[in-house]
Amino acid sequence: MRRINVSALKSGVKLGRPVYSSGGDILLKAGTVLNDGYIKKLKKIGVSFVFVEDDQAPQHIPGDVVARDTRVAAVKQVKDVLLETKETGKLVIDPQSIYSTVSEFTDQLLSSNALVYSLYDLRSQDDYTFAHSVNVCVLSLLTGITLGYSNNRLMDLGLGAILHDIGKMKVPTEVLNKPGKLTEDEFKIIKQHTVLGHELIENAGNLGRVPSTIAYQHHESLDGSGYPLGVSGDQFSEYAQIVSIADKFDALTANRVYHSPFPAHEAYEMCAGSGSYWFSERVVKAFLYNIAAYPEGTPVKLSNGLIAVALDTPKGHSLFPKVRVVLHQDSGPFQEPYEIALYARKDIQVVSVLEEDEFKELMGGYGDQS
Question: How would you label 157-166 residue by residue, b for 16+ Cβ within 10 Å and e otherwise?
Fold first, then answer.
């Protein structure tokens, strides 16, 4: 199977893996041959990428770093909490219910060797905020684990990550979901979600200081250029820094009405370049430790002229995946593709990610998809 951004899909390709809704329902089954109607539907609901069948690409794609059922249940839990807050104007929550979810995530992450960007994408336009909150929680916990956080600190971090955007429930829907560019006044309204979230969590009275700080500070920057207060340096909580970089990465890779998703390697580069002015180097390094810059199924060009498809990437080797070599750019396809572990061969590097049309032209088509 090969990973393709929905924006690059063409009619006639066959899905290699099901497409799910944020509620866990199958929208399109594996084996479905995509036509223009299906592709239009995928774009409309906000799916960022799919896996298609391809004889030249790896047939096994690793699953999520957490079980899909766990993720789906968490999205539903977050949806219930946020919608009730929107309806009542206040946050009433038993923190133990969220701690239970965070604990389950943590247990699965500690036992998983997978990298987070191998996850199933459950974000859709309608349920984006809910699935996004869960993604940010998973990314934040991975970072906290890498930093050696205690279980108690992970619980606080996870709770704050899940609730980081709770203030958006008090922002007018027409502003929050506006497809076009925000006016200056609308942006001021959006920025208030940090203050509103802080107030909601503080007024709940039973969630502690860390979650309210995360909600308040997750749009701040180390250099003081963020909002709402423009804090800087040590005033910018490390908890909030972790949630902030997770928030930015997940938002960059999402398919939204106002922007197409950035490929993983571009989002990785943006986060990698943010150290010392947006976030501390310590936080950036720990976050990127768990990110695959070239997710499984991504077609890449190597520094020695070989064309390959990315396989798995070990933790800490984000830019150096194991790849399946399928052809040389000058001599054509190999009859017997072979694998190279780039993390063990630092003399060979990925130099670019191939666009879908470019890879298709090099391979002479998608291969046998019967």
Answer: bbbbbbbbbb
| CATH code assigned at 49 | 3.90.105.10
CA–CA dist 295, 350 (Å, integer): 12
Last residue of a domain, one of 288, 305, 335: 288
> Domain boundary at 235, 256, 288, which?
288
Q: What's the whole-model pTM score?
A: 0.86
Dmax over CA atoms of the chain, in Å, equals: 67
DSSP string across 273-313:
TTBTTTB-HHHHHHHHTT--SS-TT-EEEETTSEEEEE---
250 and 346 in one domain? no
Q: What is the CATH number of the domain that holds 101?
A: 1.10.3210.10
Which positions ≥6 away from 141 have C-beta within 8 Å? 102, 105, 106, 109, 154, 157, 158, 161
Asked if the structure places residue 17 within a domain, the reply is yes
Helix axis angle for 238-252 and 209-217, nearest 10°, is 50
The reply to whether 235 falls in a domain is yes
Going by C-beta distance under 8 Å and a sequence separation of 6 or more, which residues neighbour residue 355?
Answer: 8
Task: Report the relative pairing of strands 49-52 and 332-341 from DSSP bridges.
Answer: unpaired
Under 8 Å between Cβ of 359 and 310 = no
- In this predicted model, what pLDDT tens digit does every residue of 9-63 receive, in sequence order? 888 888 887 887 766 678 888 889 989 888 888 877 777 778 788 766 656 555 6
Are residue 153 and residue 263 in the same domain, yes or no?
Answer: yes
Q: Do both 305 and 284 map to the same domain?
A: no
User: Are 48 and 108 in a shared domain?
Assistant: no
63: enclosing H helix or E strand:
none
Number of compact structural domains in the chain: 3
pLDDT in tens, 124-164: 555 788 889 999 999 999 999 999 999 999 999 999 999 99
Does 200 fall in a domain? yes
Q: How far is CA 265 from the centre of its chain?
A: 12
**Can you state the angle between helices 151-162 and 209-217, rounded to 10 degrees?**
50
Tokens linked to 349? 């590097």
